[in-house]
Design the sequence.
């Protein structure tokens, strides 16, 4: 037995004896039931036979796992081509949100990828949404969500060369800040590098182990060069916490927990750093009302965008917007 497997066995034995076992094993309204069988007592992962004991233990302790060469070059090239078509306005996608860096003046806008820093909500684009249904992705997602899987949030990030104002940075944040569904442990992000990603072009930076904490207050950081729309950041996290820079090759994928504090640095190259991602949730998850919580600010912002874009009344809620965007990709749509 490997050292990691031995540690995993010790951890399981500890959980079985722990007085906090009920808190770890029970999600009263999630529809997800843990059993006493080996090794289902772990909090963040399921034993589907795919993850090794070493990988499960690593995710339990760190909140992320890096899988190399998971998405083919052909698929990535197809996603890139469709993104470029969208940027050239050759295709219109219902519900798509097109974003650009705050440093790009409106007068500079041209129908080209240089003007677009990110697209969100591409669930109505069949070519891009194919990423969310890739069997090799879903096999890993099931390890974190269980068999009934919803694709909830889609993005293709096109981090631009920094214009000198450091606006290409993404502040440290927790993705759960944007989500009005729970439990957090049944949500996972798949983030795939569409080219070589390193510290020079702004790779992901994660704070290992922060997924075991709680959702923190978020707001716009006070950056001199400005902050991109909806790029909220965590307030009050420990800047001395150990960091990991996730340098990746084209096709590599990282899966991470929605409470993991993460962000990305400046793109100090002349090229565009592309990545495609999807946040998945168990279809057994449930929606919450964020009124009276630290998430009220993001709900207000989302409502303002929805009202302006779709002429929807003020009665819309954050959970309404997620119910519209979610798509079943495996199993049965039981709750979400």
Sequence:
């Amino acid at each position: 037995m490997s050292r990691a497997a031995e540690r995993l066995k010790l951890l399981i034995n500890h959980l079985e004896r722990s007085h906090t076992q009920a808190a770890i094993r029970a999600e009263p309204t999630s529809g997800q039931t843990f059993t006493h069988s080996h090794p289902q007592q772990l909090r963040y992962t399921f034993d589907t036979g795919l993850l090794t004991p070493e990988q499960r233990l690593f995710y339990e302790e760190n909140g992320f796992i890096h899988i190399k060469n998971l998405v083919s070059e052909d698929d990535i090239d197809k996603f890139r081509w469709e993104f470029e078509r969208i940027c050239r306005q050759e295709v219109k996608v219902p519900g798509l949100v097109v974003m650009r860096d705050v440093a790009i003046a409106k007068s500079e806008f041209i129908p080209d990828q240089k003007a677009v820093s990110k697209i969100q909500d591409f669930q109505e684009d069949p070519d891009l949404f194919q990423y969310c249904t890739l069997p090799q992705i879903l096999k890993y997602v099931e390890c974190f969500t269980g068999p009934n899987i919803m694709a909830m949030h889609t993005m293709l990030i096109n981090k631009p060369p920094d214009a000198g104002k450091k606006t290409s940075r993404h502040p440290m944040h927790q993705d759960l800040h944007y989500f009005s569904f729970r439990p957090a442990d049944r949500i996972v992000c798949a983030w795939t590098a569409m080219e070589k990603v390193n510290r020079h072009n702004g790779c992901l930076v994660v704070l290992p182990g922060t997924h075991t904490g709680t959702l923190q207050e978020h707001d716009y950081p006070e950056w001199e060069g400005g902050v991109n729309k909806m790029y909220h950041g965590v307030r009050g996290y420990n800047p001395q916490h150990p960091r990991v820079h996730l340098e990746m090759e084209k096709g590599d994928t990282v899966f991470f927990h929605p409470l993991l504090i993460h962000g990305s640095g400046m793109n100090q190259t002349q090229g565009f750093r592309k990545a495609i991602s999807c946040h998945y949730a168990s279809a057994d998850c449930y929606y919450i009302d964020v009124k009276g919580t630290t998430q009220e600010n993001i709900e207000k912002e989302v409502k303002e965008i929805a009202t302006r874009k779709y002429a929807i009344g003020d009665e819309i809620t954050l959970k309404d917007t997620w119910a519209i965007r979610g798509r079943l990709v495996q199993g049965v749509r039981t709750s979400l």
